[in-house]
What we know:
Layout: E1 14-18, H1 23-34, E2 38-45, H2 62-75, E3 79-83, H3 85-101, H4 108-127, E4 132-134, E5 139-143, E6 149-153, H5 170-175, E7 176-177, H6 185-194, H7 216-223, E8 231-234, E9 240-244, E10 267-272, E11 277-281, E12 288-298, E13 310-315, E14 323-330, E15 335-344, E16 352-356, E17 365-376, H8 381-384
Parallel strand pairs: 1-2, 1-4, 2-3, 4-7, 8-11
Antiparallel strand pairs: 5-6, 8-9, 10-11, 12-15, 12-17, 13-14, 13-16, 14-15, 16-17
Helix pairs in contact: 1-2, 1-6, 3-4
Amino acid sequence: MNSLDLPKPPHETRVVVAMSGGVDSSVVAGLLKREGYDVVGITLQLYDHGAATHRKGACCAGTDIHDARRVAERLGIPHYVLDYEDRFRDAVIDRFAESYLAGETPIPCVECNRAIKFRDLLNQARDLNADALATGHYVASRRMSDGSRGLFRALDPARDQSYFLYATTSAQLDFLRFPLGELPKDETRRLARDLGLSVAEKADSQDICFVPQGRYADVIARLRPDAARPGEIVDLGGRVLGRHEGILHYTVGQRRGLRLSVGEPLYVIRLEPESARVVVGPRSALATSRIRLSDVNWLGATPLAALVDEPVAVRVRSTREPRPAHLSWDAGSGCAEIVLATREDGVSPGQACVVYADEGSRSRVLGGGTIRRIEALRPGAAEAA
């Protein structure tokens, strides 16, 4: 087996590298080329990058395509730019807008990995007779005792991206490789300098690529100009406290920007798109005890349908560490039920809930799904939790 766990010598092993133009994917291409692999770089044009040229902090912009091309030239590998704008708009951007207008808080990076990179791009890599598709994600993949590959958290917990890759299927994992999963970020930058890559000091991406400066409402308003419905801001009892210009300006857990003078801090508890109401209340009302997940992707050894009150660990946001919970499968609804051991605040429909085998820093990803429903704690329970 070579270093990618494939039964060929490197020079006979073709690897397609998804090159975003950033330091991480560039180092992946450089390392594999240095080891003697037959490396092909592919960069995806995912949206109209002309308007974003020279904008810092976002992936997939025009300058990033240029940077990827320069790295490929430096490494002496073939490089292709594929126009995926139409499929990205249909599979990611339009779904993002629809989810937001439904009162959810979507995570488009999950859908991009699921529908674009690990489906369409992976199929393209197969068409090029590649043996593997490698990316610059910070996540680990290892061969399990049954011969399948498991997905694990990265060595560097500050860089771990397993939360965004829970939807990766077992079949995709067999073809995917993540060479940076066992490296800290500072080592990646050192390798970029050693390889003489021009992107060695390039800043990391921060924004969602098609959402400049994180201004979600501006994007939604442009995509759905007639969708912003003014409505009422009400408390948990239905009392009107004010008005708003559209629920797209609010997310669950939000405190700032409510423009209410009621003498106490209030938070967005839920959004009601049918009535265009924003429901606010005290922070204790954000406490969640149960979560229902749809569109579940399962990577665990035990069949999902056989799980009843299974002890697991879950993350409801990428910035939170896994916390103890129990998982059961509800065959009637086709959903997974998560019971949290400790309260979670600000959980919103549309977000991802990722399931791990335990709370360890290198724990295995068992799967995850989209949060469809949450159940708040009973009055008074939040304070006691």
